[in-house]
Amino acid sequence: xxxxxxxxxxxxxxxxxxxxxxxxxLYYPFAILGPExxxxxGWSNSFVFGVFSAALxxxxxxxxxxxxxxxxxxxxxxMVVGSCLAALTLFNLSHVQSMAxxxxxxxxxxxxxxxxxxxxxxxxxTALHGRKARRPIAHVTLIAGFAxxxxxxxxxxxxxxxxxxxxxxxLAAINLLxxxxxxxxxxxxxxxGIDLAPSEPVLADPGLLRPGGRTAGFVxxxxxxxxxxxxxxxxxxxxxxxxxxxxxxxxxxxxAGAVIGPMQVAARMIExxxxxxxxxxxxxxxxxxxxxxxxxxxxxxxxxxxxxIVIVFAVSFGIGQGLNFIARAILPARLFGTVGYGALTGNxxxxxxxxxxxxxICSALAITHAGIGATFTLFGLMAVIGVLAACGLQIIxxxxxxxxxxLMGGASAD
Length: 414
Hints:
With 414 residues, the chain is mainly alpha-helical. It has helices at residues 3-6, 10-26, 30-41, 45-73, 75-93, 99-116, 118-129, 134-144, 147-158, 164-185, 215-245, 250-274, 280-300, 308-336, 341-370, 372-413. It folds into two domains: 3-185, MFS general substrate transporter like domains (Growth Hormone, Chain: A, Up-down Bundle); 215-413, Growth Hormone, Chain: A (Up-down Bundle). The longest helix has 42 residues, at 372-413. 48% of the residues are buried.
């Protein structure tokens, strides 16, 4: 592999930074700010996090609209508007005085998040690189994988000398002063704009599946992505409670959480180095299998003492989580092509976000009313469904690729 193929394009690096900001200011902060807001305003934690879940659920409805806007206007104007809206909504959040105002502010924040997180970043890279977008996408996920690593300590430090409202103002300024200029640099159309874009011609890809034969692929993709999103959302929101129910220390949960982040980055780095030698669907299968294996290790901690089994869970789950974001970016383009990529990923995101938003309450109800065993049964069922759907996608990709090769071979013979 050439050095040029390995190096990170300047624009790809900048988009990675903007994605880090998108998640670091609009998603991860509320794990820390949520309890702080509840304490300062005299609201319950259940209200604050209930509003966050409701906002996430509502954003599922807008995901497809954002996707269609990307196809019609391009990623740049969508991401520019998203950065401005993110700054405005965070500024608005810093001034809310009522529970209703807080709920409205969170709804707007989640709407702006749809414009500046992975789906829009992947659409921008796909428009710029066409069928060669896999490596830049891996670079972006590698960079943005450190969003919580950067912003959790930053927010914790800021809370040492200012209140949560001041922190929201800082996060708004970061979107306005850093993310917005980056998004303004993205060429509106391939081949135009600043010299940060790749100089090679963009190769559009019609995809392996032809119109009229895409239903099964779309359904399996929606099931696979929804299953993995449900698992990741459920585990992340209920992990401390799960370990508490198992009689484990909170320090172990913190340690395992610290392992997941580096492992997802390590998995993305390995995927980046392997390039296209591993098919898109195989990445999805490995991701789903690693998540299933992680759930199995966590469930095994019910019978095995010691901390090692929980750490092994974190390693496996981190690998699955890291590869999942890449699979979500490259599989749609591989099977359905790069034309209409924004609308397609927006529709998939709508379905996925419904599952993601429902996961916290489902896991909480399962733990409270059915017990830890039933909770792991739920997690295991979702993981198995995800693996089966991913295997189905691998079969579809393999057959479609073989059919395309036969067609090209026949055309060459003619």
